[in-house]
């Protein structure tokens, strides 16, 4: 406890870090306040149907990322998701299209071009999603009765404009947190949106266990202990790396010697991050959606029930497959081998060039397989928790996209804070060693959550 208090004093004594923390908290407060400002023309009392339907399937994930703004019909209802979609698309294009690869290699100027195109694409995506959200709200069983009849004519136009402006404003908040705050602005906004629902979900779980009598409190404490163990296991997954020894040849320039040092090339056990889970959830959502148009009892029961054994089996296979696919897209052993050769580096016992690329690729495949299995288990944990009578809201924090994002973002933020402390010659946050985030062991340049 004394160490914790001393760390807080050290953090507060650094003017730059204190300003970053205060600015980040203020911008996040603006985001949370905006999540409760209802769109014009809607009666908040008539949103019960929206809240109920927004907790299912992909809409539940969407609402979780938006911090409940989606189910509140808020001006930030679409949240940061259009920007995430645009960023993912631009990332994949930069990997697959040679012209975009060249732009990305131009350094700072290339990064600015990619970011500017991502913003334009975000506005386009938001316009389409805003139109879909308007159609969703106008459904009689969703929130059709909550729209004031006198405003029904103007509602589609004003809503699309406000949703687009809201998403662009949230994107601006994220960029300000990245530039002036604690960094990883988009990821922090998503994490805060997810964490905002944690207290209410925990209270609901506690209340449900209290109805069981004296044994309910013990079950609740066991659930909390299991949640802590799950978080500890996820920290291992996020930080897990396989280090490959790399030697650099000595160079003598004038009277000085360069190189000759032995370093390590860190390969991530889970280099794909949360993307395989998101892709798998999107694929699993499609059959359930189609079953609503052409009812099939078996399909509807399997793909709409996250606790169904067949759902979890298919879902796990998809996560494993997408983990290998996305890792192959973002990690290029040939490029890593070429970079090592260009910098006079080599792996001991392995010839430079293609043999080094094959060696790195083989090791990457070996560590990706257990990482993919672990990621699949993380993805189905909420369904397992739901089968063990954990409430729907609280079960989502046992794994899946939500918990993985929370753990990764918190580790990155703590690492940034610790870096500021060490730069001022303070002790780190932990006695056992430095905190490692995702960025300390990345080799591809894709350091964000997505």
Q: Can you walk through the features of this model?
A:
With 450 residues, this protein is mainly α. The chain folds into 2 domains: 13-196, Preprotein translocase SecY subunit (Orthogonal Bundle); 199-450, SecY subunit domain (Preprotein translocase SecY subunit), CATH 1.10.3370.10. 66% of the residues lie in helices and 5% in strands. The chain has 18 helices and 5 strands. The strands form 2 sheets. It has a 3-stranded antiparallel beta sheet with strand order 4-1-5. Strand 2 (251-253) and strand 3 form a beta hairpin. The protein is globular and about 85 Å long. Belongs to the SecY/SEC61-alpha family. It comes from Dinghuibacter silviterrae. Keywords: Cell membrane, Membrane, Protein transport, Translocation, Transmembrane, Transmembrane helix, Transport. This is Protein translocase subunit SecY.
Kindly list the characteristics that best describe this protein.
450 residues; transmembrane helix; Preprotein translocase SecY subunit; 2 domains; 5 strands; two-stranded antiparallel ribbon; 5% strand; three-stranded antiparallel sheet; membrane; mainly alpha
Secondary structure: elements and pairs:
Blueprint lengths: L1 H12 L1 H20 L13 H6 L3 H9 L15 H16 L1 H7 L3 H30 L17 H26 L4 H11 L2 H13 L3 H26 L1 E8 L2 E3 L2 E3 L3 E7 L6 H19 L3 H7 L5 H22 L2 H10 L2 E2 L7 H34 L4 H4 L4 H24 L27
Helix pairs in contact: 2-8, 5-6, 5-7, 6-7, 7-8, 8-9, 9-18, 10-11, 11-18, 12-13, 12-14, 14-16, 15-16
Pfam families: SecY
Organism: Dinghuibacter silviterrae
Membrane topology: Multi-pass membrane protein
